[in-house]
């Protein structure tokens, strides 16, 4: 097999070849490594190689849905015992932090028979919708190397889109699966709160807002992986019932006629590009052609207030995380990016009363979505407000940097998070990605489906949000859309 043949298969397809003894896992790994050697210097997607681990595993007798398939994990909360892990930060990179445990999600991926040969690039602690950490540098988009791959699962998205692997580990705390899926033309599903595990380190992440799954090219790969990895473990705080029917079986059935609401307006009042509007409009027409009813409508939620509540929780959570990292590694503020230090300073000034009020608001947003889904089966928006930004385009505004440094020196950086200025910061930070946080805050499953490429050849995804626990509905519709308007031929246009 050569690369031209390899890239035509998804993960399940490659696994079937191995099962039929048409190819050996070591041969597939060789092709994946050769592809990585060729394109990763241009992409900067894989930052920590695991080649010896992979070569040893390829010699083992493997079983599972993806037995022998090359795989990558994100360098954030997807630890492998004995493999250096940085979370995208100098603070851990400089001490060569090496965990003595596997993350439970990794254990479950291993049970599918995958062969992991590297860890992928991510922004520092996953705090941004782009991947350009100081510790490792920008991750480039294979559709156009001048553009970013998105974040925080940017390295995984870049590697899958470029054909290094058919499927890779990802995580989503504010859009970090769906954003890079949108920018890189992939299928990306964020599961419902509690669907996938967080042990052994944690019982949950950010009150269940953050979930782990994969990025891939085909819907069936996502469905098959979720079939295997879903379900609680001993540490799980949130527990959700496992459906009786496998997702891989569900997607082979045609969905019922669905009533789908849609909106192309930014919930935080920021600009939405013509590409994003056209992507949703074209998706709406496709849905109608398949017999679904599409209605323009939005839930009764103040999007800017939701964004502020999301940011308040995230900043506070990050303050705690940074304190843990400092205690474990001996790091000082100089070992963190300026934006990270500022976020921690903001979060440190959030009072318990403010934090509890924010969480109470999360519940109110969930109630509104439950009411909304009494009228509709799904909610459609753009996944992102535009196609992928260029590398360096999404950065802390120049006017903020000297102010931040000065206030940090005085211990008063939290002043920036007071009054109307916090609204401006929210709009600056989320203007590229205003649509994804709703599903995280409410714990609802959501997906980005690659149905649109602009005239410059850059993709932009359509996001669907479903009622709680209804990944089956999302995956079933995604499979129908994939059959009606397959996107697999688009990857031939990647010229790297």
Automatic annotation (TrEMBL):
Signal peptide limits: none
Superkingdom, natural source: Bacteria
PROSITE patterns membership: AMIDASES (PS00571)
GO terms assigned for molecular function: catalytic activity
Pfam families from the UniProt entry: Amidase
Domain Amidase: 27-475
Listed Gene3D superfamilies: Amidase signature (AS) domain
Family: Belongs to the amidase family.
Protein name: Amidase domain-containing protein
Organism: Acinetobacter beijerinckii CIP 110307
Taxonomic placement: Bacteria, Pseudomonadati, Pseudomonadota, Gammaproteobacteria, Moraxellales
């Amino acid at each position: 097999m050569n690369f031209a043949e390899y890239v035509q298969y998804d993960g399940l397809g490659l696994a079937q070849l191995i099962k039929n003894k048409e190819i050996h896992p070591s041969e597939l790994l060789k092709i994946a490594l050769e592809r990585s050697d060729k394109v990763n210097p241009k992409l900067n997607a894989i930052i920590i190689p695991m080649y010896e681990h992979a070569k040893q595993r390829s010699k083992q007798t493997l079983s599972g849905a993806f037995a022998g398939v090359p795989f990558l994990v994100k360098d954030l909360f997807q630890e492998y015992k004995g493999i250096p892990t940085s979370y995208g930060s100098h603070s851990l990179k400089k001490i060569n932090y090496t965990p003595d445990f596997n993350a439970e999600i990794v254990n479950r991926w291993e049970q599918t028979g995958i062969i992991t040969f590297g860890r992928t690039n991510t922004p520092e602690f996953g705090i941004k919708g782009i991947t350009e950490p100081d510790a490792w540098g920008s991750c480039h988009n294979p559709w156009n190397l001048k553009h970013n791959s998105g974040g925080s699962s940017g390295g995984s998205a870049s590697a899958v889109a470029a054909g290094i692997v058919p499927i890779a580990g990802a995580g989503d705390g504010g859009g970090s699966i769906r954003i890079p899926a949108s920018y890189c033309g992939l299928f990306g599903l964020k599961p419902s709160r509690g669907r996938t595990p967080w042990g052994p380190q944690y019982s949950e992440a950010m009150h269940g807002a953050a979930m782990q799954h994969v990025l891939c090219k085909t819907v069936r790969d996502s469905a098959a992986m979720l079939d295997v990895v879903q379900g609680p473990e001993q540490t799980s705080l949130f527990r959700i019932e496992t459906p009786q029917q496998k997702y891989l079986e569900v997607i082979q059935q045609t969905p019922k006629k669905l009533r789908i609401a849609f909106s192309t307006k930014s919930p935080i009042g920021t600009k939405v590009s013509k590409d994003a509007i056209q992507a949703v409009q074209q998706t709406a027409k496709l849905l109608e052609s398949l017999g679904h009813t599409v209605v323009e409508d939005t839930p009764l939620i103040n999007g800017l207030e939701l964004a502020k509540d999301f940011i308040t929780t995230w900043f506070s959570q990050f303050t705690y995380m940074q304190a843990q990292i400092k205690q474990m590694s001996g790091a000082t503020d100089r070992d963190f990016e300026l934006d990270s230090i500022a976020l921690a300073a903001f979060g440190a000034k959030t009072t318990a009363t403010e934090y509890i009020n924010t969480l109470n608001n999360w519940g109110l947003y969930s109630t509104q979505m439950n009411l909304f889904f009494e009228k509709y089966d799904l909610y459609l928006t753009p996944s992102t407000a535009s196609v992928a930004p260029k590398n360096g385009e999404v950065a802390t505004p120049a006017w903020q940097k000297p102010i931040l440094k000065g206030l940090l020196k005085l211990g008063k950086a939290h002043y920036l998070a007071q009054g109307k200025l916090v609204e401006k910061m929210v709009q600056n930070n989320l203007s590229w990605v205003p649509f994804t946080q709703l599903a995280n805050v409410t714990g609802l499953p959501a997906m980005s489906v690659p149905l649109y490429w602009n005239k410059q050849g850059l993709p932009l995804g359509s996001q669907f949000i479903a009622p709680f626990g209804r990944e089956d509905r999302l995956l079933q519709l995604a499979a129908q859309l994939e059959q009606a308007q397959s996107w697999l031929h688009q990857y031939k246009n990647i010229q790297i």
